[in-house]
Amino acid sequence: MSLAKRRILLGVSGGIAAYKSCELVRRLRDLDADVRVVMTESATHFLSPTTFQALSGQSVRVSLWDAQAEAAMGHIELARWAERILIAPASADILARLAHGLADDLLTTLCLASAAPLYVAPAMNQQMWAHAATRANIETLRQRGVGLLGPASGDQACGDVGSGRMLEAHELRDAMAASFGDGSLAGLNVVVSAGPTYEDIDPVRFIGNRSSGRMGFAVAQAAALAGANVTLVAGPVSLPTPAGVARRIDVRSAAQMHVAVLDASALADIYIGAAAVGDYRPNYVSAHKLKKRDGAGLSLQLSENPDILTSLSAKPVHPFLVGFAAETHDVANYAQHKLRNKGLDMIAANQVGEGLGFEADDNALSVYWADGAIELPRAAKPELARQLITQIAQCYRASRAG
Ligand code: PMT
Question: Which residues line ligand 1 (CB under 6 A)?
Answer without folding.
Answer: 193, 195, 211-216, 254, 273-277, 279, 305, 307-309, 323-326, 338, 350, 352, 357-359
